[in-house]
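FAQ: What does a multi-protein file look like?

Like this. Sequence, then tokens, then the next protein.
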Amino acid sequence: MKKIKGALFLLLSWISFCTAAQSTAEEWYDMGLDTGKDEEKIRCFDNAIRLDENYSNAYYQKGLVFIKLLRRPEAITLFSTAIDISPKKEYLEARGDAYLLEQKPTQALNDFDQALKLAPKNTKLQLKKCIALVETAKYTEAEPLLTAVLQIEPLNNQALVCKGRILYGSNNIYEAKKLFEDLIKKNPSNADALAHLGRCYELENDIANATVFYQKAASLQKNHLFAQAGMARINARQSGKPCDDCPTLPLLSAFARKYCLAIGNSSYKQFNDLDAQPHNDAKAIGERMKKFNVEAQVKIDLTVKNFAETLESWYNLVENADVVFLFYAGHGFQKDGMNFLVPVDAAGTIDSQQCITIQAILEQLQRRNVKYVVFIADACRSHIQAARGFTPKGQTQNQVEIKPNGQNQVEIKPKGVGNYFMGFATAAGKEAMNGNGPNGVYTTAILKCFLKGRRIDDIFRCARSEVEKLAGKIQLPESTESMSEAFVVE
């Protein structure tokens, strides 16, 4: 029987060879397009390539078959060959799609950019570029591009899902959930909307609902990559392992030099006392950091002089560090785009030179060549002109007046900190709540979310959701980041 099968295989191979010799590359290519069987398609395109090694369309079509068969790395190689021969739009687009499926959004973004140079008004390509930008957390760049797409195709489901991803990626989880829920009402079989609604619940730490929506998406669309990744994260979290989609990200435990400075200012001389909460907050953050082997310093009630001396000493300590955490609880405010931290002996009418800006701290850390910077500010960001003297006891808002200095204040943007994340307890111009427990509302949320196995950026999304549960819409945390690569708390 084996001899018969072997002879039959040789006969078929000989027939194929003879037929290939009699047909042109174009004829084999056309036969590949006409047949419905994947194996036959591959054989036909192989014969076309054998007769013409520069037949770019044959490489491209064979790559599409491999995508269908989930042989994506091989497909990428075929698309690359086609691009080397002739860099056509459809080849670049196909390779970009494959890179997205392989979770390589940076490479995908490059391909979509190249394809858009060949077809700059192609709405489909613009949307794919937007998706790649979202995958790389470049939400600010993605937003105007998506707006342009939605102006042309306002009901495009992929575009609307992308809009929701931008919303929750920018910490607007409530708005994202509403958008996905509306999409699901219109089409209960919208697997993408179901999967990303699951992600919203996951970011809110509502694992039960996240699981439900991930499973619904997976049941509607087999091999839904986003739903599968979500379930893998949940399973990893429940097993105590690092997040499943972060195997290539650095771990906090692997960093050799990691530091934390936690500051709690409460006993103000000219402003309302904040009782013990900022002290408790700084101590709690310091203790949490020590559990992850982060060298932590806790400083209480820093004056203008103490603040400056502490920071200067700390800057020297953390030079060339892998990661630094800086936590501040106390009075704060925002003015002209600058975020100020207030020493306990600041005068009733504050000269801006008495206070410390977060932006200036970031600039100093940049000069010290710190790789990762995580800044957490549990403070108000309101600015209302007040009379000199104490603000009424019990009022949560820090009321200050800036003494004019004759200069226009402009935001200092750090030029060299490649990976920084800043989490603010509340939105610009708003107050931060104290809460009823030993810690402030935002610190309570951070402590609840700062757990093993989580990406650092996911921790702040989780904290925002926790604050919403505790304070409703009264206090909405904000964050800003420049993260080319996140790390995992492990």
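And here is the next protein:
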Amino acid sequence: MYIVQIASECAPVIKAGGLGDVVYGLSRELEIRGNTVEIILPMYDCMRYDQIWGLHDAYRDLYVPWYGGSVHCSVFCGWVHGRLCFFIQPHSSDNFFNQGYYYGGLDDYMRFAFFSKAALEFLFVSNKRPDIIHCHDWQTGLIPVMLFEMYKWHGMTNQRVCYTIHNFKHQGIAGADALWGTGLNNDLYYYNYDRLRDNFNDTAINFMKGGIVYSNYVNTVSPHHAWEARFSDISCGLGHTLELHQDKFGGILNGLDYHVWNPEIDPYIAAHYSADNFAEKAINKKALRERLLLRDADKPLICYVGRLDDQKGVHLVHHSIYYSLNRGAQFVLLGSPTEPAIGSWFWHEKSHLNNNPDCHIELSFNEELAHLIYAAADIIVVPSNYEPCGLTQMIGLRYGTVPVVRGVGGLIDTVFDYNYDDSHLPEERNGFVFFQLDSNALESALGRSLDLWYKSPKDFRQLAIQGMAYDYSWNNPGDKYMAIYEHIRHK
């Protein structure tokens, strides 16, 4: 099968979050299965050019229709860790992708409307006719709209679109200028509620809604998050649209790249280990303590790795630090604050706890240190407010680090409570789960994990080893995406 992924990110060349990891990991898995996969990306000025091999001209003079005229673009081609990627570079005074950032500009909706138009135009004029066009998040929501309303009348009749929503929070709210730029010039038609009109703002269009309405299949990144999107407010206003299109909507859990996250081969950790020689994990605990100047004592080590923002339940992250210390445990935090107020809060805590031999707070992102923390810790806390999929709990399981998670999104699809999960046998359970968004709920689950560590170390070790047995690689998601592709291909 010939598959083209169109996205605003692909790790490691363009990565702002989990989207980049998914685009790369899924593409790799699809290629392993014998498919031809190409990835189309914007050519940002700030992307990691050192992660591209053999960058060269692929299509020098691409003229993209835009506002009744055209924008001259160049298309470059190169390999990103084995994946074939095309990068679209507009030569325009708008400087769509020469702004020093991936997201965050006031013109983001126009930047990605243009990118979507340019990606389709590139497929059209270069005579690429993939079986599947796989689009991701709001940035590419207009692609299925333009494919169905415009490009299918010019020879692109057999292409089918799978549209994956990674985060409902950002939907691409725009005005009619986005329609005019791309050539979707019939305002009355597209502002119809059944097409692109935002569900709660009749003067705006919604890119993500367009993706849902016009795609052949829509999915989010875990089964439980798909349920949440339908039946709670987590869809941020798109619940009714998903209800209308429920027959083509589902959830597929993201995979984890086991070539990167694997304690048996990880180059960043002090000692390699597996379920068969689990005792070697303790060497990593000792190495982390030495690196961070923590006390070397017979104590459980608890960690948090990830962004520090409201989505991640930052107030519970904060509470878990002091609760852990009060229970005689150690705590290591590696996180990047996303807002000034959160940054100030945690810088204050870092200063306050700076001389505590049982705590270390690192307010940055450090890939190498993250690997060692996962390998060293006994317990990882993931108290998210919402979590479409979540990778940290999967990494924790892979490294024999027992997850304590809030029961939302992909967390509840991957972590099964040691005491209370009746749908799994005791030998299939792998962590601790709580449901309410308050400190008492967090303490109930984190407390149970610490009780097990202190009172039944043999049982705690067995629980950690059971977690390592789970396969959260791209193998199972690969099966599910292939089944969807085959299904929509023959519709």
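Q: Is there any per-entry metadata?
A: Some entries carry free-text notes. For the entry above: Residues 163 and 218 are 5 Å apart (CA to CA).
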